[in-house]
Every structure is written in C-alpha cells, then in structure tokens.
Amino acid sequence: MAPVRAAGTVVIALSIGAILSYFLRSRSKSSSTKTSNRQNSRNGLVAAIGNTPLIRINSLSDATGCEILGKAEFLNPGGSVKDRVAVKIIEEALESESLAPGGVVTEGSAGSTAISLATVAPAYGCKCHVVIPDDVAIEKSQILEALGATVERVRPVSITHRDHYVNVARRRALEANEIASKHQNNTKDGSQINGYTSDKETQSILYECKGGFFADQFENLANFRAHYEGTGPEIWEQVRGNLDAFVAAAGTGGTVSGISKFLKEKNSSIKCFLIDPPGSGLFNKVTRGVMYTREEAEGQRLKNPFDTITEGIGINRLTENFKLAELDGAFRGTDIEAVEMSRYLLKNDGLFLGSSSAMNCVGAVRVAQALGPGHTIVTILCDNGMRHLTKFYNAQYLSRYGLTPSATGLEFLGLH
Where is the Tryptophan synthase beta chain-like PALP domain (predicted)? Predict the structure, then answer.
C-alpha cells in the first residue's frame, strides 16, 4: 500500500501546485490590469511598452543594508524609459488632432527621446524628424538613421539661442505645417519651400509630409502624465506599498515629477530626491530655491551650459514638467562617480547601464547613506550602455578628461 500512499501524496501536491499557480497567474493578471488598463486597447509594438520589472540591485543592497531596486526601463522596445513619453505625446497629439496620421513629429533631443519617437512613430503612421547636438555619442544618430528618422545635428548652444536644438526642432514643425498648408492649396511648386533654413534633404521630408507636430518633451505635460499614470502606479504595485524613498536625475523633469507626485499621493511619508550631474542648476533650485550662481543669472547662459559626460540629464532652466515634482531634497553627483558606478555594476551585477542610469544608482546609494540601513529605495535604470560606447564606455575618451575608472569597490562613495 505504500506506493498508493506515495501516489496519493503526489496527486495532492500536484493539485495544490496547480491551485497556487492559478492563484498567482490570476493575481498577476489582475495587478497588470490595474496598472495598465490602456494596454488592453493596444496591439503591436506599443503594447510591449511599460510594465517593466523592478529588480533588486544586489551589490548595492548588500553594501548599504537597504533594498535598492531599479526599474528596468532599458527593457522597453526602444531601449529606454522615453518609450513611455513618446507613446503618450503621440497619442495625445493624435487625439487632439494636433498631429495628423502621416504627419511628421519633430523633436530636439540629446538622444533617448529621439530614438523612442523614431521607434514608435511608424506604429501610428507618422514620420520623425530629430534635431540633436553634435556632441552626443555618434551611435545615437546612427541608430536614429537606421530607424528611418531624419537626423539634423547642430552645435550645442544655450536654450536662449535661436539655433539651440530644441528651437530648431520647433521651427521644423512650423515649416512642415506651412508646407502642408500650401499643398492643400494645390501649390506643389518646389520653389514654395524656398526661404526655409533647413537643407534640401530636410525640405524634401517636410514637403512630403501632412503637417508637423513639435513634441516639446521639456514643456509638454504629456511627459509628466506618462509617468504619473504609468511608471508611478507600476512601482507602487511592484513594491506593494512598501517604499521609503525614490531618487532620480532630471532632464526634462517628466520622470521625477510624475513618479514623485504619484508616490506622494499614495503615501506622503515617502521621500523623493533628485540626483543632479555637474553643470546643472537643479540641485541649487531644490536645495536653495534659486538656479543661479554668482557668475550668472538663471536662464541667461549663452554658451553650452553643461560640463558633464552624462547625457540626457541636467538642465539650467525650470521646465513645466519639473515644476510638478514633489521633492524632499537633492544630491550632487560627479562624472567620476557615474563612471565608477557603471563599471562596478557591470562587474558585480552584470548590469550594463548608460550614464544617466549610473548617476541614478549613485543617487540611490546617497539616499541609502542618508536614511541608514533597513529602507527600501527605488530608482530608474533609464537605458543600457549600448548607445554610450563612443564616450561613456570609451577608455580613450575618458582618459582625455581624467575620468579613467580605478575603483575596486564602492570606495568612491565612501563605502568599503
């Protein structure tokens, strides 16, 4: 009879396993539905954006005594957190008829938002025209071109300059709208586009389109809403309400504002922090209430305001998106800390992260040091290192600026 008892035990075990499996799948499905109801009406590429995993960064957690969790946004189809923003901006523009199917989306971007727009725009039947600074990693423009976007590289200047990449992108949208209007009036003579400042290739793209829409990621609050309605709720569900702090750097400000506002509404005791790279004025804005130094007034720089190897974060003006952030404090990060952190995480966790992700992890350790052991901290892993090879992961480039990594552990952050 022993074999019968053993078989009965196996049957019972399998039955319990099946019940538990069904329960977990149902719970997972319910959680996914709550955090992303909009996904139900989507298909194709867009349906794969969001609901990224929240992973424990083992080395940093063990070193600090805190649970340091990273939202793995590099797993989005376009490779970064900006996929969320691109979808939200385009969907809202189509709904409001600011953008027509077949139209061109223009944007001034240091890379990630541009790549995300170029990735998702075809899913909505649109084209993409991107204006980027000519000092960003060359692989970003190569990726954009491979995605079919029109890429216009301009020299880096202050936002107050008419030829700042954001201002150029705004003009391109206006040009596209003027050209589309002339097409509607049956004036298809190529001379009609004379007088525009864009080159012949750009004129050709604009000429063929059905109007333009300037994404305006810095000031368009669709950026904020992408994270307030998507990323923030996902984090809250994933930590099951057990969260002490959130920290991230800011470029446009959409990520840090959308997530911080949502989390604060869920639990006002959650601490939200900014980590700011060199050359940015946001640290001063958060900690002192002003964004200027003795040498300059806020927003009046006429040269490139950044002095950092990190890309896509740091700014010297207050955007409409950042104004909505609910922050308890800020930390200043350095280039060498970001470089050392990226190599440390690659060696100890197998995480191959971009510069802004590395800076966010620097911020997570700073928060852990400030709060002490036993706390749960979340940050954003914005993108991976694949689009940072020629600068952030280039030994010769780093050596030129005295940024060659040499740490064996976390001593660069005071941990041994």
Answer: 48-383
CB 375 within 8 A of CB 65: no
Per-residue model confidence as pLDDT tens digits over 123-179 = 999 999 999 988 888 888 899 999 999 999 999 888 889 999 999 999 999 998 888
